[in-house]
Every structure is written in C-alpha cells, then in structure tokens.
TrEMBL record:
Record keyword Glycoprotein present: no
Family: Belongs to the GMC oxidoreductase family.
Protein name: Oxidoreductase
UniProt source species: Streptomyces subrutilus
Keyword terms, alphabetized: FAD, Flavoprotein
Positions annotated to bind FAD: V103
All copies of domain Glucose-methanol-choline oxidoreductase N-terminal, residue ranges: 266-280
Domain of life: Bacteria
Entry GO MF terms: flavin adenine dinucleotide binding; oxidoreductase activity, acting on CH-OH group of donors
Keyword Repeat: no
Listed PANTHER family: GLUCOSE-METHANOL-CHOLINE GMC OXIDOREDUCTASE (PTHR11552), OXIDASE (CODA), PUTATIVE (AFU_ORTHOLOGUE AFUA_8G04090)-RELATED (PTHR11552:SF152)
InterPro entries xref list: FAD/NAD-bd_sf, GMC_OxRdtase, GMC_OxRdtase_N, GMC_OxRtase_C
Compositional bias ranges of the Basic and acidic residues kind: 9-22
Length: 527
C-alpha cells in the first residue's frame, strides 16, 4: 500500500486473516475527504490514539493541478473524478455527470471552495427534523474552530465585470451589497464570495491542506493509505469491526478498529459501502443477492442536490483575465418574505457556461458571461440504489429533478431567468453585453422558459442526504444525532450524507463543521 507516513509497531498489530493481511488501529476513517481530513487530524492530536485513513485516490501534495484553485474545471471528468452518471430524468437533464473527487481532501480538493457558514435557519431546520443538538446556536462555535483560510475574494482577483455585476444586481433588484457573507446571517444580497484559499498564490486551503498537510509527516499515530478502496465493512454481529480494502496493486487487506469505524466517503460512496455490506432496504438487497445484515430503509433515500440552470450572454469582446476561480461573485434573493432564508441564488460565471445548452443546439460565443439561477431549498427528493452486487459497478443516482408536487423547483428557475434579465439590462453590467445567447430573448413565456431551464439544468456537485440524521422514532433516519448508525455498534457516519435537509448555501463549510463536531463526539466518548 502506498502511504504518507509510517506508524510504529507499538500502535499497530498485523496478522494474516485468510488471504488478507489484517491491520488494527483505534479508529479507521473511511475517506480522506472534507470531513475525514478534519476527523483524522483532530483524533491524532492525542498521541496515544492511532488512526488509519482509507483514501481511494492519490495525495494532493505537490500537485499544482489540484492545489491551484483556478484549475478546478480541468479536474472534472479526469482521472481524479469518480464521475457518476445520472439516471433518466423525465423532467430534467439526463446527461448530468456528478463529479466526486478521487484525491486526498476529497471534493475540497476539487471544487471552487466557495465558503459559506450555513445559516442559523439551516441548522434549526435539522434540529426540527430530529437532529437534536444541531441547532444554529449549538453549531456556531464549530465554524470558529475551522483551520481553513476563509477570506473574501482578494482585491486583485475581483474582475471588473464581476464588480459591475454586483453593482447591477443592487441597482436592478434593490438588494444590499454584502462584504463578507459570513459576517452575519442574511436573506438577500450581492457580493463577492468568501473562499477557502490563499489569494496571494491562488492555492487551495482545502481540508487536506489545512488539516493533514501540516501533520501528516509528523504524527506516527496517523497512517494514510492512498489509492486504497474500501468495498465492504467487516461486521461481527451488530458491531462494525473494520473495512475490507483493495490497494492499487490489487492486494486486499482488512483494516480493523479497536474503537470505531468512521465512514466519511461522501453522499454517494457512504451509502454505497453500507449497501454492499448488507445494510439498507432488505428487499432491495435480497433482489440483488446481497445477504441483508440490517434492514435500514433510509440508506440511499432522501438524495438531495442544488440544481441550477443557466442564462448566457455574449460580451463585446474579451473580459479581463484576473479571477480567483471564474465564479467569484453571486447573489441571493428572498422572493417569499416568510422564508427563513434566501430562496434563490445565482453564481456569476466570468465565462460562457454552455456545456448543456450546446447539447440542444446553442453555440458557445467566443466571449461571454453567465448567470446560474440555483434552488437553495429544493423540494424534489431522489434516491441512490445499487444495480449490481458487484462493488465495482457504480450505483444509480436518481435525483428525480423537478418532480416536487407543486412544481416549486422549476418555478424557481423560471423566476431566476427573469431576474437575471433584469440585472443584465441594468448598468453598469449592460454596457458589457452584446446579446443574450441562451435561452434567447425570444423565449419569454413561463412554459417555454421552464422547458429550457430544466433541459439545460446542471449540478453544482452538492449531493447530500442519503444517510440522513434523525430522531430515534424516524424510521427513515440512518444515523442519530450522535452520528451512530442505527442498529449497529462501533460505526458512525460523518459527511454530507447525514444532512437531513439541504442548507441554502454551498455545503462545504457545513461538511467541515460536521467533521469538527464528529471529532468532538468521538473524543467525548473516551472521557
């Protein structure tokens, strides 16, 4: 196995188990991603605690293609992307590919690092859904513990057209200017985002950079197993003993935990691992020939996302080159005054984002910009499920986009396109724009706008909810507020899969905060 660090024999025991080599640690963290990096770092602050991190991808150390934030688009669909397809979406876009990072740091090594502290109303919604102790006031301190360098987009990265978008949004919609979205809770506002990066170098401050890089060569009690894929949990009755893994050379091992297994593989691969281990809806497992160990109907259900559509304009020539990651500014709107938070969001792309419109006949302009109306609180719910007992076969992701009963999600995108046009007509942004490319100014009625918006909809890679947290009497909950898997001992889940509902903002900071709270829960159980 490839690994970053060695571990002293005082902390590790190994023995042959059939054809597998067995290694034992205090904790086994499955997934060296956003939450897993936090948990591994925090647990190994105690030199008497041994931790193994199972990471399916390579290290991000000395990888400028990963560590340079503005190169994020080049990672999509590449060899560091698990690249999950979407099932047929009768009311949406069936061609969406869901990027999931195959590299240390997980999706924080792969995404745009837009850094929003979830709003108090987001956490309160979790608490009301049965996640006792996860309300806004209780969760706020975890943000202050984060080690990432979270700062507003640097002045040198503030592109002139992005600045003019912010001004035009205020002018057209009457929303306030926000300088620092994390300073206080908000309902509306336009401004530059906070990012987890170093403006002077454009380098990421991902979970791995912030939590693992400073300690990975200094802590003999931390072992990171890279290019190592976890494919099945090892269970002894109702206790999780460890996880079966395969290294890059095909070698198979059993990594066991004296104390707990912590699954942090993300909203796709966490339920996938549970299902292949016989934990999930009994009938579905039996239909595939997987022996059921625990009938847990919520595994794979409640699949959430932040779908969005796009409106594109051609500009009167090239725009300035400076940017942090080409989508540095945005806008939040609250259409419903009774909504506890924003109910419409936009990212402003300093590029013509036409990947999906091109599929239905639109052409990419040489120079352009885009606005992406996004649904902060989508009402559609999807499902992840297996199609094969073979762990190598990717699971099916059926997001059931735009299937909510009252068509709220689709109407949100229609409203977004209309508001985007108002912004584009306002100065100083209007002076940059030559013409609307897609959907095109001739498309104006709601039905046609909805058909366009849904057919070119895309994801901002925020899958969540597939092992949701809830109260003990919630039969669809997979974990309780202590993150322990219902009906099992010695195993917790800590990643976006435990989200009961979707935060109104980009969820990465929420996942980091879940990691901090999980580490505290794990440590607290030892005292």
């Amino acid at each position: 196995m490839t690994e970053n660090t060695t571990i002293t024999h005082r902390h590790e025991s190994g023995r042959e188990s059939g054809h597998e080599q067995e290694h034992e640690y205090d904790y086994v963290v499955v997934g060296g991603g956003t939450a897993g990096s936090v948990i591994a770092s925090r647990l190994t602050e105690d030199p008497g605690v041994t931790v193994a991190v199972i990471e399916g991808g390579p290290s991000d150390v000395d990888r400028p293609d990963v560590l340079t934030l503005r190169r994020w688009m080049g990672l999509l669909g590449g060899d560091l992307d698990y690249d999950y397809p979407t099932t047929e979406q009768p009311r949406g876009n069936s061609h969406i590919r869901h990027s999931r990072a195959r590299v240390l740091g997980g999706c924080s090594s792969h995404n745009t690092l837009i850094a929003f502290k979830p709003l108090p109303s987001d956490w309160d919604e979790w608490s009301q859904a049965g996640a006792e102790g996860w309300h806004g006031a209780a969760m706020d301190p975890y943000y202050d513990r984060l080690l990432n360098n979270i700062v507003p987009v640097g002045e040198a990265d503030r592109n002139a057209i992005a600045r003019d978008f912010v001004d035009a949004a205020q002018q057209a919609l009457g929303v306030p200017l926000v300088e620092g979205f994390n300073q206080k809770p908000f309902h509306e506002g336009a401004g530059f985002f906070d990012l987890a990066y170093h403006p002077e170098t454009n380098k990421r401050s991902s979970a791995s950079v912030a939590y693992l890089h400073p300690v990975m060569d200094e802590r003999p009690n931390l072992r990171i197993l890279l290019e190592t894929w976890a494919y099945r949990l090892e269970l002894d009755g109702t206790r999780a003993r460890g996880v079966h893994v395969r290294a890059a050379d095909g070698t198979r091992s059993l990594i066991t935990a004296r104390r707990e297994v912590v699954v942090c593989a993300g909203a796709v691969d966490t339920p996938r691992l549970l299902l292949h281990s016989g934990i999930g809806p009994r009938a579905d497992l039996e239909a595939l020939g997987i022996p059921p160990v625990l009938d847990l109907p919520g595994v794979g259900e409640n699949l959430l996302d932040h779908p969005e559509s796009v409106i594109v304009w051609e500009t009167d020539g090239p725009i300035p080159e400076n940017s942090a990651m080409d989508s540095d500014a945005g806008l939040f709107v609250r259409r419903d005054p009774d909504s506890p938070g924003p109910d419409l969001m936009f990212h402003f792309y300093q590029i013509p984002f036409t990947d999906n419109p091109e599929r239905i006949g639109y052409e990419r302009p040489a120079h352009g910009v885009s606005l992406t109306p996004n649904i902060p609180k989508p009402r559609s719910r999807g499902r992840l499920y297996l199609t094969s007992a073979d762990p190598e076969v990717k699971p099916a992701l059926d997001f059931r986009y735009f299937t909510d009963e009252d068509d709220y999600d689709a109407r949100t995108l229609v409203d977004g396109i209309k508001l985007a046009r108002e912004i584009a007509a306002a100065e100083p942004l209007a002076g940059w724009l030559k013409r609307e490319v897609c959907p095109g100014p001739e498309i104006t009625d709601d039905e046609a706008l909805s058909a366009y918006a849904r057919s070119v909809a895309h994801t901002v890679y925020h899958p969540a909810g597939t092992c949701k947290m809830g109260a003990a009497d919630d039969e669809t909950a997979v974990v309780g507020p202590d993150l322990k898997v219902r009906g099992l001992d010695g195993i917790r889940i800590a990643d976006a899969s435990v989200f009961p509902t979707m935060p109104a903002v980009n969820p990465m900071i929420g996942v980091l905060m879940v990691g901090e709270k999980a580490a505290e829960l794990l440590g607290g159980d030892l005292r």
